[in-house]
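Dissemination and training. As part of the outreach component of the grant, students in the summer workshop were shown how a complex can be specified as a set of sequence lines and then modelled as a single object. The example used during the hands-on session is reproduced here so that future cohorts can follow it. Participants entered these lines:
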Amino acid sequence: GQSLEQPSEVTAVEGAIVQINCTYQTSGFYGLSWYQQHDGGAPTFLSYNALDGLEETGRFSSFLSRSDSYGYLLLQELQMKDSASYFCAVRDGAAGNKLTFGGGTRVLVKP
Amino acid sequence: DGGITQSPKYLFRKEGQNVTLSCEQNLNHDAMYWYRQDPGQGLRLIYYSQIVNDFQKGDIAEGYSVSREKKESFPLTVTSAQKNPTAFYLCASSPTGGAGNEQFFGPGTRLTVL
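and obtained this result:
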C-alpha cells in the first residue's frame, strides 16, 4: 500500500515563500505529483518528479529525494490567488497512472 | 474545447436509493478514474479504468459500481449499500503509459443524502 504525510495547514503573507513537505511510504514508486485545488473546485496539475532533483515552473518548484522518500513543493512570491489546498500524490506505475493522494495542505495567504 | 464534464453539479438523494453520476471526456484518454473527497480530506480512489470494457477497484470500492462501455464515458453508481455517500465526487482521465502522469479532473458532483 501507499501512505503520504503532509502538513495540514500553512499560513503566510503575500510575497513570502512557502515550502510544503511530503513524505511517503510506498510498495512501488514511479513519481511524485503535486496538485492545487481551490475551495469547491477541481484539482489541477502543478508538477511531477520522477527523478531526484528540483523542477522549476514559474513561481512554483518541486523537489524529490527518492532515497529519503521525500519531496516538497515550493511556492515563491506568494499571491492571494495561491490560497488553496495542495496535494502530493504518488504514482503507482504497476497499475498505469493510478495515484494515491496525501491529505492535502491548506495554504492561507494573508495581505 | 477538450475537457471532462460531470453532471449534475449538485445531487440530492434519499437514503436507500441508487444514484448514477455521469462523467464524459473528449480528450481521447484511455484511462479514467473516480475519486471521493470528504471535507478537509484528500482524494480517495473508488474505481479506475485503463481501457474500454475493463476496470479495477480502488481503495474504497465498496458500495459503488462502474461501467466502461465507451472510451469517453465512465459513469459511477452509488448504491444503497454505501453507508455514508455524502461527499464530493471527482472524475479524472489521463493518457496511459509513458509520461502520461497528469490527470485531468472534471468539476465534480456534490452528492448529499437526505
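The interface with chain B takes residues 31, 33, 41-45, 48, 50, 87, 91, 95-104, 106 of chain A (CB under 8 Å). Students were then asked to discuss how this feature might be tested experimentally.
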